[in-house]
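One thing: mind reviewing this one?
=====
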Amino acid sequence: MAKEIELALQQIIKSLPDKPGVYQYFDKDQKIIYVGKAKSLKKRVSSYFNRDNYENNKTQVLVKHICDIKVILVETELDALLLENNLIKKYQPRYNVLLKDDKTYPWICIKNERFPRVFSTRNVIKDGSIYFGPYGSGKMMHTLLDLIHHLFPLRNCNLNLNEENIEKNKFKVCLEYHLGNCKGPCEGLQTLRDYNEQIDAIKNIVKGNISEVQKQLSTLMHAFAANFEFEKAQLVKLKLEQLEKYQSKSTVVNPSITNVDVYSIASDEQFGYVNFLKVVNGSIIQAHTIELKKKLDESTDELLRIAITDLRLRFESATREIIVPFVPDLEIDDVSFIVPQRGDKKKLLELSERNVEYYRKEKQKQADLVDPERHTKRILAQLKKDLRLQEEPRHIECFDNSNFQGAYPVSAMTVFKDAKPSKKDYRHFNIKTVEGPNDFASMEEVIYRRYKRMLEENQEVPQLIVIDGGKGQLSSAMESIDKLGLRGKITVIGIAKKLEEIFYPGDSIPMYLDKKGESLKVLQHIRDEAHRFGITHHRNRRDKATLKSELTDIKGISYNTAQKLLWKFKSVKVIRETPESELAAVIGKSKALLVYTHFHPNKVQ
């Protein structure tokens, strides 16, 4: 049966056209399991069945479940993107990226009626009304509506204000009129022309064209002032101040940046996050972040393409300029992608990146609170991926050497289990076989001693060994690993502190991890712990050696007596300057005389 399916699929692939379109994969039950778009259907679909092109195991699993292929031809790649987006939303295929926020977002509606009402709604009805949105943040939308209602007295009743009803005096003004929130169009106290001028101003504000409204209000204010209608002029002035206050809160860059969309992306092992900002005249009028669940380890390029297509549809954006962190493999007619390097557009992109990174971290924190183990699993999975390991590094050991001008050489080993310090497993090593400042030979000795003992005691070796140092220290460590027959059984890497370069045995080209990523932070943490632990031990050993040379060289003074003096006076220098009577109070008269005579031979008679 499997061979029959394979032959049938090969026949379908051979007949596919070299044109743009959407392909759908079906399982044995004729259920759609994957939808994709392509510039060339033939090349793209063929690539799935070429084993050399498999990018990950998940793709292999998908291919094993494909029993039928159907395609839809379209004119352009953009048409393919839009169709792909609609099909994914409709069928929710098992192996497609899942857009996580399928809830309904609010819109600002200007109702299609005489004397239009302006209100928020989550239901878009195609009745000729004008809708602005959707708004990812309800707070932003309500702030905008509050501003509109403060600036313009609008009716909020649902009366049928046609010309005939008003002429027949069917309605009476309500409390809103007496409060000054409505000008009473129901009794003909406000003309349709005057009301529609307000609606035009509202449209400009919602679109972000605040400067146009400011000009109109400024002209009106000066007209009132010229006619000595100062109370009316003052009311208009207050409206202008409210507009300026609103604009100052939303302006982030140069107001000359008009009608621009901004996208940025962040991702982890399971999800991608894309932030969208719509900017008009330097003001952000819409902001939203979506979450995309990965199914086939999709690249950031794929995730960004999916997000741009979805968000342009959702927010009905027709902007011709899109600011992005990199140019995606996406062509949209009359649209240019810009990757800014400096200036105000770069600031906009950085603002979007801060927003998406904040969203990602908040999502992770919430998930970690619900399931603490999830945090550990995520970090281990990320380490496995970033360091190209065969298994998750649940047990990591790190080594660092310390010496002072070749004297008192020591080495420290720190241990992380499940990405957390396991301090009970930390170890110190005094170097035994190396003379002088030979960091490479010291590393070779310590690695050999550590893992020879583990093998003799049948202890489980770590999945990852981290060497604090570059290629030289790593090569020395591998000498011992080879002697013990552990090459290939343990992954060993070196981390050079200056540029945080990651080295692998036999590879002269370093690898660089994301500076803000969790993998590098874990490696830095265990390396810094090894450095701290080693320095502490080295200092204690050096102090002990100094104690022996300075005080225990005095005939008649034991190590314990020297310790008593140091506990009391803190240093040999202070002991040297202390009177004999004070020394006697600590160690007795006879020993005090010995110490004082040693440091002041000319003063003793």
